[in-house]
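Aim 2, interim progress. The first record below pairs a target sequence with its structure tokens.
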Amino acid sequence: MPRCPDDDHTGSRIREQRKLGRLTQRRLAERIPYSYSLLNQVECGARPATADFVTAVARALGVDTTVLTGQPYVTELQQGRLAGLVLPIREALDLYDLGADPSLTARPVSDLIATADELCQAVRATRLRRAAESLPWVIAELTHIAWSTPSTPVWQALASTYRTAHDIAVKLGYVDLSTVALDRMDWAAARASDPCLAAIRQYKRALGYHAVGAPAVGQRLIASGQGLLARESSRESLAVVGQLHLGASAVAARAGDEGAVRTHLDAAGELAERVGGEAGDVHWLSFGRANVELHAMGAALAMRHYDDAVGQAREMRLPLDLLTSRRARFQVDWALAEMETGHAERALELLVSARRTAPEQTRYHPVARKAISGLVRSARSTPDTLGHMAAWVGL
């Protein structure tokens, strides 16, 4: 019998769905016009899954074919009615070069600037739907004002809304939209002459390359962001530079460069001491000692030092005022580490806790999906709680 790897491929997703349906391979083979032997080979990755094979299996399991082919967001976004929220954001991002809109009556500038900040806060509190519903109108009004009566605070607020658009797009899996949003952020930050916003944009770009495994580009983007603030010494700039070092540690961890990880974490730790406290007031970065510790654990996880990650997580004491998005991400990362070290029950408890903390973020987060998928693969039988979690994220 071929050995089944843990690679993320169509066969492994068929195996997940079969186990969630509490079917053996032979029972599933009886429901499709293909042999048990072929099913076994496809699940192990020894044979490719043809389109007809996938269609037959999807029909037998009662799932959408995209669940098996690796496009998990499509069905889930339709069920959550979130797809309808994304189109208005996309349209609002296209207004940037159209000038003032004579048909638009904008709210007072002070109200819009405050609202832009509230939207950034809402995303970090994981209220994604609320932020997504309001964001297009705020972008449209700020764009109108930026063209009709431009000022630095208006351009800064507009750049902030573009950042929020990026964050929402990333959390919902719209990579193409997140890239457009960052381009718009650069456009507005340049007009605001705000190096901190420009540096944050480079940080966000670097994390995107980190996610797809392109550390060299990510490192150059981090260096570019640091260069923008080389002559700055304000508390704001120190916090942003510190966050750039944390981003660099994540990029280095993905590349397996333990020395660089340590260098950047040490630099971030020194800056956290200079900034003092958790600088959540600086562009909602939540930069501080706790965030340095969270990135150290994340680096261990990225380098597959799962025992180290578990040890760090169990010793960590998070501040009570830590942003909800960071707390939920910590729980998800911790769950993955526990799953990888064989502590399935604890991992499931943490995933359930993350769901309570930030349901929208957890539901669409790839690490949560990876942890749940791993639990399903390793389970001899699927407990009801795990089955409910798997169904909830669309596995």
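The second target in this work package is listed in the same format:
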Amino acid sequence: MKFLHVADAHLDSPFGGLSFLPQAAHQEIQESTKAAFTKMVDVAITRDVDFVLLVGDTFDSNNPVPATQLFLMREIERLTKARIHTFISFGNHDYMTPENLLVQSGQFVHIFDENVATSTITAKDGTVVDVIGFSYVRNHITEDVVQYFPAKVPGHYTIGMLHGSAAGDQSGVDNYAPFSLTELNNKNYDYFALGHIHLRQVLSSNPLIIYPGNLQGRHVNEPGTKGFYELTVDENGHTTSKFVATSIFIWQTITLDLPNNLTKELLFATIIAQVDDVLKDEPTRSLITLTIRNSEVLEKELHDLLLDPAILNYLSQKISSASYLVRVHFAVKRHLQLNNLDQQYLEEARQRTFTPEEVQELAKPLMKHGFIADFLADPTTIKRLVEQAELLLQQEMGETRDAD
């Protein structure tokens, strides 16, 4: 018996902050979540699996546009035509009821509502499979839902579908169907298919308890290859797992040090050469954050050039792997040299200004944009803002000294 474990497809994720890219490139990135989903369905059909588990957040919102609903319907129709079962639960992003979905329940389509329920099928090899799950109908569930999961029926291969997070983890204070690993193990199920956490991880090997991560990284904080798990169950009921990649693009950060006394031509040539060197063995196209580790060597004119979207587009066209530069992060290796009094004033200003609370307050009008909220939630953001402020100070002080 074979099945696929998929979660967090986030169809129609907005990929905020990339609108500066050429229209064709931006459109391709916007469609990458759908392309990754189609790759998954292709694998399911090619490998003749018995069923596919979609463990929440298949859509990025609880009000997906009709075109995206139709996309999902067509993909599930492909699975149904191949006599592959699909089990669907809704998560905290796409919380809804089965009635909201254009896809309809049927012989090969099983959609969970808010109540924990068991759906039973017989696999091609005769294995009786119980799939147990539930759906979100609101975006937060603070209750431990696992307590309602029924006992395993002897002789049935039993799977728990759970879109949630371990109690007390960093995804939010127990707002997402919190559970403990101990209680999952105590259920004695054959497999627990998890969703919600976008970092791929195996929480337990016996029984297998897995977060597959999402199918396509959506921003810089979701780097690396993404995909799903293929599970194979042998005649003794032993389950083995294999990760299958679906990323259309991968997000990655490339760090470089620049030589002194740069001209525009040398700056561009250095960036292109070093990016090409990093990407030469990477089979998947990349969305690149360029971190310049010693950006204090840049003249302000060159620094400002690298902030211009047109320059990023120009450099992207020169990269041989058809990848895109989407962000430049300026770090500093040589810090400001100040007298004791100036250093004291600088440190007081830093402590007063660069606090999570102050930054969140200043950015409040922009927090409605998901990509900005994600950026500010990143624990490294404050450090980057401090580095940028220090770099600007160095540039301003350099100009002042030149004028003197």
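The two ends are 78 Å apart (CA to CA). This observation will shape the mutagenesis plan for the next reporting period.
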